[in-house]
Amino acid sequence: MDVPFWIWAAVLAFIVVMLAIDLFAHRHAHVIGVREAALWSGVWVAFGVAFGVLVWMGWGAEFGQQYFAGYLIEKSLSVDNVFVWAIIFSYFAVPREFQHRVLFLGVLGALIFRGIFIAAGSVLIQNFAWILYVFAAFLLYTGYRMIRQRNDHLNPEQSVVLRLFRRMVPMTGAYHGQKLLVRRQGALLATPLLAVLVLIEATDVVFAVDSIPAIFAITDEVFLVFTANAFAILGLRAMYFLLADLIHRFIYLKVGLALVLIWVGIKMFLKIDLFYIPTVVSLAVVVSIITVSVVASLRATRGQGRKPLPHPVDPPFPIASAEEDAELEPVWRSRHAVATSNLRVGGATAVDDKRESAGHDGGTR
User: Biased-composition ranges for Basic and acidic residues (predicted)?
Assistant: First the structure.
């Protein structure tokens, strides 16, 4: 597959522009409702499908099918990622109006990390053909583990990443709007929202370790692997606000995702030396597994409405009061500048007091 540099540049530019538009559209903190989330989800899915059509028209049906298979796998695995985000936000009792900013930065970081992983995976496959056996075995093991642990959920309190962050980074005890960093009494402090972002990035790295080998089982074209990942990830924020309150209804989805990983692991094993399964067959199998798991889940839980995860009775972090926000200093001023400013203010106050005292003495005389 021959992809000119200008096409790479155009795709990256489009991603940057769309991220900027999304950030501008949500520049003010507000609660994103189901209707807005559905609209944005439709926009992102439309872009992903339209790009697949362009690939199909420009490079042929085989590459088009590989893109759509990779896109569907990444999109499906991302649903589990969305549910983990919901658990993290619930544990930290993050106000809904602050969640989009965290997810925007989380998705931006995910794109960067996925790009690094894809480049590394491509280099490994080109130089060490046996690495495909490792990828295939890892996918089979991950699928088996997901089935065994289908009823287990992330417990943020036991996260090693969170414990290290709390130990190494000074942090405030309350949320200060959408700020990730604040300065108080000259000291730069992280807010709990930054801790949430770090934990979300860490979980995405774990998910990337599963999803990237899965797409390499479908295609070894780096351009298709990256674009399928990118267009699937771009819609994650909208998908979160659309599905976060429906976690309790997708009871069989994790089993479906596990079967998808097992299927692509088998495909990768067979592809190495034995037999190549046509992409259209792989696409049909993935669509069938996901469709059956979703339909079975919705039928088993029919009649149940939207139900957000409950926040802890005693939230770990409150929202800072107006008085606490008023005590904050500009973040990007250095400690020296703050100290100098305080010294000048203190010195000016002392001079004013001295002048005022001299004036009183003069008046007495």
Answer: 351-365
